[in-house]
Amino acid sequence: MDKSGYRILLVDDEEDILEILSFNLDREGYQVFTATNGQEALEVAARQQPHLILLDVMMPEMDGMETCGELRKLPGMEKTIIVFLTARGEDYSQIAGFDAGADDYLVKPVKMKVLLKRVEVLLRRREQVPKKSPGAADRSSGSIVLDRDRYLVIRKGEKLAFPRKEFELLALLLSWPGKVFSREEIFDKVWGNEVIVGDRTLDVHIRKIREKLGPGYIHTVKGVGYKLEEKED
Amino acid sequence: MDKSGYRILLVDDEEDILEILSFNLDREGYQVFTATNGQEALEVAARQQPHLILLDVMMPEMDGMETCGELRKLPGMEKTIIVFLTARGEDYSQIAGFDAGADDYLVKPVKMKVLLKRVEVLLRRREQVPKKSPGAADRSSGSIVLDRDRYLVIRKGEKLAFPRKEFELLALLLSWPGKVFSREEIFDKVWGNEVIVGDRTLDVHIRKIREKLGPGYIHTVKGVGYKLEEKED
DNA sequence: TAAATTTTCATTAATTTTTCCTGAACTGTA
DNA sequence: TACAGTTCAGGAAAAATTAATGAAAATTTA
Description:
2 copies of one chain form a homodimer. Chain A has helices at 15-28, 38-48, 64-73, 92-97, 112-127, 164-174, 183-191, 199-213; strands spanning 7-11, 31-35, 52-56, 81-87, 104-108, 144-147, 152-155, 158-161, 181-182, 218-221, 225-228. The first copy, chain A, is of the alpha/beta class.
C-alpha cells in the first residue's frame, strides 16, 4: 500500500500524544496533520480533506463526539474515516452505541503497532479498488457479486434470487475462485459438522446454481470436488 | 503422535468456550494456552510460540482476522498454523478469502471430535518437512508446477487438468525431480499399501501423463522405476 | 395450506481406473 | 548371432467410481 497518498488528521488536546502519533504515522509514510481542539480540527479538515481522522474523545470545549458530528457535516467529509481514541474506563456503551458517526474506536493506551495496523486496515477497506495481481490467486471474483444482506447474486448487473443453501454454497465457492472445494469441506462449511446429508444433495444444489448462473461457472473435478472459475476453458 | 510437544493457543472472548476447548485439548496431551482478546493473544503468542492457534473470528475490539494479521507479523510466527473459528452464515468471502492468512477454518458449532481430529491433522501436516536432494532441481524451479488448490498442473503457463490418480502420481514424481521411484514405492505412496493393483495399471497412468505433458518429462528406468526430469535427453 | 426450499432416490451418463493383449526393446546366455 | 526371458509401451475395452438428471418426498416458510 502506498501510504504517501493518504492524509491523516490527528486531533488531541495533549501535545505529547500528538507528537508520538505524528512521528509514527509520518514514519509510515502518511501525510499527517494535527489539531489540538475541535475548532481547529474542523478548519484543518476542511482545508486538507484528510482520508482518516484520529479523534480523541476527551477534549475540553468541544469533545470528540461533538467534533465528529460537525466534521461529518463538512462537504466531502461524509465518508471520511473517523476513529475515536478513548481512555479505558470511559463508557463504552456511550461510545460504541451513539451515532455520532465514528467508524471505529481505539482504547488508550494503544500499542503503536496496533494503531498503525488499524489505520492501515481502515484505509484499505475504504479504498475498495480491487486490483488484480497477475498470476497470483485472485480471490476477488469477476462478474459475480454477492449481496449477503438481500441474498442476491448479481451477475453482470442482473439480480438473481438465491435460496439460502444455494447462496451459502455459492458464497463458499466464490470465497476463493479457482480453489477446488472437496465435498467434505463443503459439507463442513455450508451444512456444519453436525448435519449429515446425502452426497446427492450437494449435486442437486450445484445443479440448481448452474441452472441459475448458466454454464461455465461451476466446474466439477471428479473425485475431488467443485470449483468456481469464470474464464477457464 | 506425541502431542505433549505441541503448544496450542486458544483465543476466544467467551470464557466458557475457552474452558471446554482447553479441557479437551489438554486431555489429549497438548500444552494449552488461552487468551480472551486479540491483544492478549499477541502477547501470549509472542511468549509461548505456539504451533497452532485457534482463533475466534468474532471478537470485540480486535477481531480474529485483524489479530491473525498481527500474529503473522510476529517473529517466528509466519508459519504457525492459524485456524479460524467462525459462526455459520458469516461471510465466507471475508473469512476464507482475504489475505488474513488463516490455514483453515472451522464452523461453529464444532463437534469436539471433529476439532481434535482437525488439529491433529494440521499439526501432522506441518510436521512433514519436504526433503531436498542436494543436486536435484527444486520442484518449483522447473517448468511444471502443481497447484493443489486448483488441482491443476501448470506447464509453461499452460493449465492442464489432471484426474486424481494421475495428479497424485505426478505429484509424487515431482516431489523429487530426478529421483527414480520404484514401482513398489509408487504403489505404496499413491495407492496405499492396502490396495493392490496390477503392474500394468501404473504403465497406463504413466502413459496418460506422458500424453498430457508431452515427451521428455517422464523417463523410464527399466527394471527400476520411473523418474521425472525436464532437461535430460 | 400453498409455495418454496431442501433432501432423497433411482437411473442414466460420464469419467476414471484397471485389466488384458500384442508387440517392441532390452538383458543375458549359449 | 540367435534365443529365451523380462519389462515396458500402446491400443482397446471392461470394470468401477463418481456425478448429472428427472422426479418426487420431506421439510420449512409465508
